[in-house]
Amino acid sequence: MPIKIATDLPARAALENENIFVITEECAVRQDIRPLEIAIVNLMPMKIATETQLLRLLGNTPLQVNITLLRTAAHLSKHTPLQHLERFYKTFAEIRHMNFDGLIVTGAPVEHLPFETVVYWQELLEIITYADEHAYSTLYLCWAAQAALYHLYGVPKHDLPAKISGIFRHSVLCPGCALFRGFDDEFLAPHSRHTEVRAEDIRDIPELRVIAQSNEAGIAVVESANHAQVFMTGHLEYDRDTLNAEYRRDLQKGLQPSVPKHYYPNDNTNNVPLMSWRAHAHLFYSNWLNYYVYQETPFNLNSTKTCGRPACD
After folding, report:
1. Which HAMAP family would you find in this protein's record (predicted)?
2. Which of 76, 126, 198, 201 is the most exposed place for a label (fewest CB within 10 A)?
3. SS3 of residue 310 by DSSP
4. Total-model pTM
5. Which residues are identified as catalytic?
6. Domain architecture of the chain: domains with CATH
């Protein structure tokens, strides 16, 4: 089944070129089916690239998905054309009366700042609080995962001595979890961050559990017991070239970045990076949509949200 997007969204051409099944608004209204309503709070500066990455994964399932793109009102992106934001994005104030089947909040390049000093921090807190009442499952990525863990459970973030960047091997700690259905015992995933959350800060919180981690990169995925919240510290959505672009950008800035680990063949930055995480990325998002969203939501989204979902099969 397709993902439903605006006819003139720039991501459409890229997705169709990759044989991702998309459907225009005009075609979708002729189908007698209720699509999943998924909102994406896009905090990344290069919003069009992030849209394409996430839509690629959300569009590769048997479910029809209707996407609402959200941006913060407190900060206007300098790297995305204003006409794109005005055409395709809504602000939280415009949708706060609505319910969604699922919600995704992306990372943001603000790790060096204390949470409370981020310009849109108060707006993000409203969104996190709203998500618990108006979305059946919320997926927080990278910095957003750290921010939500801090706000909801008091889990601190810790500065790292050096940036974690590269492709890292992870162990699945909960093979029975529906999020990892069909996964191998180990999987690869990109990380790109200067801070981390630690297992010892989560261990004594009964509502949370760590379900995937890396010996090199640390915690990868945390979930709440009722599946209402999923926190991913890495970037399964990244493209082949994303880490390369970040590395080249930091070089041009004179930051002397380390070469991303396990990324370039033979650690030679002139080599084309291997794409080694795509299959598990598609499977993770498909599992989230199916087991944590689709299987839990009522046909009428205005029904009262229910909790108490089982943590494992």
Report:
1. MetA_acyltransf
2. 76
3. coil
4. 0.86
5. 142, 235, 237
6. 3-238+281-294 (3.40.50.880)
